[in-house]
Amino acid sequence: MIMMDGVSAAASCNSEDYVTITSSGSFPFLTVSHHDSRTTKLNKIRVEGDVIIPREVNLISPTMRGWSTVSAGLGLVDSMLPEGEGKNQYFKQARKSQQKQLRSGPLESLWCAYEGEIVFQRVATNPGVSSETSIQYLRPLFDGDSVTLTFWWESGETELFPIVGRTALQLTPQGTQPRWMPLKDELTASLSLWNEEVFAATEPIATENIPIETAWNTIAMKRSGNTIAVTLNGELLLELPADNMTRYGLLCPEGRNLKVKTAVLTGDWPEIPPTDLTIPNHASPKSP
Questions:
Q1: Tens digits of per-residue pLDDT, 143-175?
Q2: Which residues contact 144 (CB under 8 A, 6 or more apart)?
Q3: What is the largest CA-CA distance in the chain?
Q4: CA torsion, points 157, 158, 162, 163, in degrees to nearest 10?
Q5: CA–CA separation, 185 vs 168, rounded Å?
Q6: Three-state secondary structure call for residue 187
């Protein structure tokens, strides 16, 4: 059972409490972790209480909840997750250090939310961490969903390449160059030639639709049926098929910084939960 009160979320199993975490509006979804070598089954899912389905979801919060490193790149740590007993001391100290640093500036060469923006700030004195890095939102785009990102663009300094599924869209002053994305633990991601051959970018497309220099730009990804349309500053960049992987994300290019000041998810969502999933407030859940 999972209980939420607007401030925290507490989970119990077989009537025994085992974790309480800080709630985050950036990921108001129920998810289940599934190990690739296990079988997972769920049944009798019920929702009780005054459930509010939001009209939009702000994907930026101090927790960075909902974002993860799905592809290759530097990691992301939720500094507000509970520690628990016996956890690795390294992570405890790392989180304390991160929280202290965030009081004076963004984290160095780590994804974080700082002053209401998603930021990846590289360390100029450490070229060893200059490789590209990316994060993706764990909930994929469903039919009718749309995500809008407002990002800062300054060529050679602060850039963003949007990700749709396995496709990264390399924005350049010459146009957009789509390319295939590696996944963690994928064989091709470990090949020395993957940058040059396996995941090489295409020739530029939409050469007239390029980011505005030294300004905030807007990228939007909207799914309609089996197609995801990507627009830049209101103009169509390209349309992609909605295949088995429709997560979207952010890629910070090699040697660049990244800043996103708004990230909003909207969708064709019902205003109230389906009746077959809810328990009336005056009723008591029955034992299975």
A1: 999 999 999 999 999 999 999 988 999 999 999
A2: 223, 224, 267, 268, 269
A3: 63
A4: 70
A5: 18
A6: helix
